[in-house]
Amino acid sequence: MGGPSRATPHTTSRAAVLDVIRAAGTISRAGLVAATGFTGATISTVVRALIDDGLVRETGRAESTGGKPRVLLQLDHGARYAVGVHLDPMGVTYALTDLTGAVVSRVTRADAGGDDPAAMVARTARQVDALVEGAGVERDRVLGVGLVSATGGARPLPSMRHWAHFPVAEELERACGLPVVPGNDATAAALGEYWSGGVGETSVFAAVYMGTGIGAGILVDGIPYHGASGNAGEIGHVCLDVDGPPCWCGARGCVEALAGPAAVVRAARADAGLARAAELGAAGAGGADGGPTDGPGGGGRAGRSEAAEFAAVVRAARRGEPTARALLERSARYLAAAVRTLANVMDLDLLVLTGPGLAVAGSVYLPAIRSELEGAFFARASHPVEVRLSASAATAPAIGAATMVLQSRLVPLRPRVRLPEDLSESAAPAPR
Amino acid sequence: MGGPSRATPHTTSRAAVLDVIRAAGTISRAGLVAATGFTGATISTVVRALIDDGLVRETGRAESTGGKPRVLLQLDHGARYAVGVHLDPMGVTYALTDLTGAVVSRVTRADAGGDDPAAMVARTARQVDALVEGAGVERDRVLGVGLVSATGGARPLPSMRHWAHFPVAEELERACGLPVVPGNDATAAALGEYWSGGVGETSVFAAVYMGTGIGAGILVDGIPYHGASGNAGEIGHVCLDVDGPPCWCGARGCVEALAGPAAVVRAARADAGLARAAELGAAGAGGADGGPTDGPGGGGRAGRSEAAEFAAVVRAARRGEPTARALLERSARYLAAAVRTLANVMDLDLLVLTGPGLAVAGSVYLPAIRSELEGAFFARASHPVEVRLSASAATAPAIGAATMVLQSRLVPLRPRVRLPEDLSESAAPAPR
Prior knowledge:
Two copies of one chain form a homodimer. In chain A, helix 1 crosses helix 3, helix 6 crosses helix 13 and helix 11 (322-346) crosses helix 12 (356-379). Chain A contains 13 helices and 14 strands. The first copy, chain A, is globular. Chain A is α/β, with parallel strands linked by helices. Strand 14 (427-428) of chain A pairs antiparallel with strand 2 of chain B. Chains A, B: Residues 283-303 are annotated as: Disordered. Chains A, B: Pfam families: ROK. Chains A, B: This is ROK family transcriptional regulator. Chains A, B: Belongs to the ROK (NagC/XylR) family.
């Protein structure tokens, strides 16, 4: 019989119950039955297990609404903690969150992680220890460390090729004595915005992240959309000109090659007056020039990262340099078109602009993106897409990295139901 | 506490079990436990209910593998049926499928559905009756009728504005005496390919559908990805030129405006020699010219639909008309870039080209799309994306429409878990 050997994906009842309790704050067993659709028996069993694990506690009774008062449940905030680490050329941000994703403590080190992986791992492990001890949290309550970057936690910078074979996660795990969950900074940024409660009711939500490159993290009902290989949301390679300049990805006219931070900096450097006014450094080796043989745009050289150079161009525009302003407005037009494509393909209802690039240049990019979406969607009588600047651009990826640990250690999505070959059995004739 | 009031989405255990049995063909209860991760008790309960409903039957025993032989289960193919109707300007296709989505009978009427909604509904109802009776299927075993088109089942052609307020689904329901499930033809095409077993193991699969317009249907693990408002996969409005021609959607440089079938026909008409050679009709009123005031490209006039005119251009190219060939190759370049964007954003692992437009012109579009994806993904060392021409372009949407009925009537996705405001209760101090 036809059809691929796979059933519908689904999560555990434990996951659903824990998530509803987190979202509600306090809720009764009856409330959980109504919210999840599970039977009272299932809810009782799941809640009992969560209480036994110390994750949930009974916290009081709902004011009687006629019937007998109902016992309320809530997460035991301090039952578990997680650390999130965001490796970014602009610096490394650490966040310690409780079971609810609320930030207990955080710190940023203006340090791209250096160029020596072993040293970076040692430094990171020391910082994690300091963060946990400083907050007075019992170490055995820390579930693990989420490690995110533009390269999925593997390297602070895409251009650090010599890191490619260095097992950062494994080494950090050894150094910290804690499980390490690696991830993508754009997806972590989306999770951070979501768990921080900043996005409210939304079904399909994307965080557009502009750091050295451009990416997007996508959540569907709060669950990261990963795609077939964990590379979903690659809007940096949305094509905006079939005859455009070659991109390192092998294609032409990608938004990153046309208008990403590295492209803006490249154009600014090409303008002697602007380069001087913005105090840009000379183009360096490594990933800085974003050419076809290069990794994702920038930051590979010693000295200022591409993101820092981009910030310098933004400052020049703020000071009134017309060429700097024009470069950013052109970049914003292109990014707006790429974002419209993302909104069309994924059918988003909310978009948050984040990452260091958009944190410094949001005043230019936000209006361009809003007007692009309003024009297109109004005419099609489609629903509006809300666009916001992140209120926590600097810390959202680190918070999201911590929530990745909470999700993976407490409420793992049940592995997609697969049908092993050996389960498809050949029938012997039925007894007559 | 932060976080939106919503838990993770999940489907019923009945859905998962039914889908695993469908995919396996035959499987034992032990196999179901292993495949779904549910307990033996849950499986027994669910299977019992499915047998009582007559959907599943015990079919024999697995050859003994040491232990005692296990009873095998399979869907009762003939227990339920569904009808799928695909309204397309090229004609209306009807398919009757059994419980497994296998086609029992199908027919195509070369008839765009006419211009009178009431007459179309009456004609469709008569055809559904004839199909069911002709196949000797008991009517009370037919679950319903899936009705799909470029406008979500509402109208055969986007340009039929006077249909906008005609309740096609409700009227057809009345005329047939069967529930009608309306849907989008691109999503139905993807479901049809999936249930027909043509796509095999795939996690994120898209069917790119080119009819009068361009769209994509996306399945994640076999479940349609709808987005926030059911409009996901709108690749017709992927921007490929920020300074491009205005699109009816309100934006500029959309692939549909640059290179969709209507744009190709428009360009062909502008070339007197080619228009003659391809025997194109003059541009008509209504949706034919795809201008900004118009609905999705084409087909609004009496006489040949835009899709038929596009087919005429394709035939001219086959006969060696260089200008026709050039127009199609240019269109293919643009569509390839849009498809690369779709593959990047959704992280696809399989793509099937379907719909009347790609069925007639696949020999031009397939190589262009393949080379575009190979170039881009190879350089990024990402996984390859397999691209195929549909083997059942003509019937996939109708089959998918029928499977929409099977899905919605037998294994409805449990509504997304929401947390009504009134479930979030205020805590009274816990008794000490």
